[in-house]
Design goal:
19% helix, 4 helices, five-stranded antiparallel beta sheet, 11 strands, 199 residues, Luciferase, domain 3, GMP Synthetase, Chain A, domain 3, alpha+beta
């Protein structure tokens, strides 16, 4: 199910949209892929950045970096950023779907889900949770809740409670810092779930 995705409505007049797979081929309606846009109002390119311009405007389409799909009514739904998508055992996991579910837990203030390299699975799902003041939550409860509502491959294999989710000045999650922290914690054997005293 896609209970936690977001509809942007139909494209505005003058905008062309298509959804493509990793090889740039259009996918059927309802199937997820990268959203590409075309309009005479779009940018000509990035200032003094020809390589980034060529990548972003390949084939005359703006490659948004957003992963989403068309629904049956012609509305566009955004699932996540392509760079944040996790691939585990050949399955795609959208962090925002898992994050939205974990946010339903009353004690959770904020959450971030990232993919960590894994020799067997490709990547494993790793969740960081920030709690509301005065609240306590056992990481195993988070995993159990996810297991009740998500496909097994989407369930975080590890959950870490930290004092604060690191954000940029504009409020975006600094996922690279969390990946570094996750790799640090994996070096401590026998601690599948940890509560950190500082990030």
């Amino acid at each position: 199910t896609r209970e936690h995705d977001r509809s942007c409505g139909p494209p505005l007049p003058g905008f062309d949209v298509k959804v493509v797979d990793s090889e740039g081929k259009p996918v059927p309606r309802g199937e997820p892929g990268e959203l590409l846009f075309k309009s005479p109002t779009f940018m000509l390119g990035y200032w003094n950045k020809p390589e980034q311009t060529a990548e972003a405007l390949a084939g005359g389409w703006l490659h948004s970096g957003d992963y989403g799909y068309w629904d049956e009514k012609g509305n566009i739904h955004i699932l996540d950023r392509t760079k944040d998508m996790i691939v585990t055992n050949g399955f795609n996991v959208y962090p925002k779907e898992v994050e939205s579910l974990i946010m339903e837990l009353e004690s959770v203030q904020s959450v971030a889900v990232v993919g960590i390299k894994d020799e067997i699975r490709g990547e494993q799902v790793f969740a960081f949770v920030e709690l509301r003041p005065g609240q306590h939550l056992d990481p195993s409860d988070v995993i159990h809740y996810c297991d009740q509502h998500l496909a097994r491959f989407k369930v975080p294999r590890e959950v870490v409670v930290i004092p604060e989710i690191p954000l940029t000045a504009s409020g975006k999650i600094q996922r690279f810092k969390l990946r570094e922290l996750a790799l640090q914690q994996q070096k401590e054997p026998g601690q599948k779930h940890m509560e950190l005293v500082d990030a």
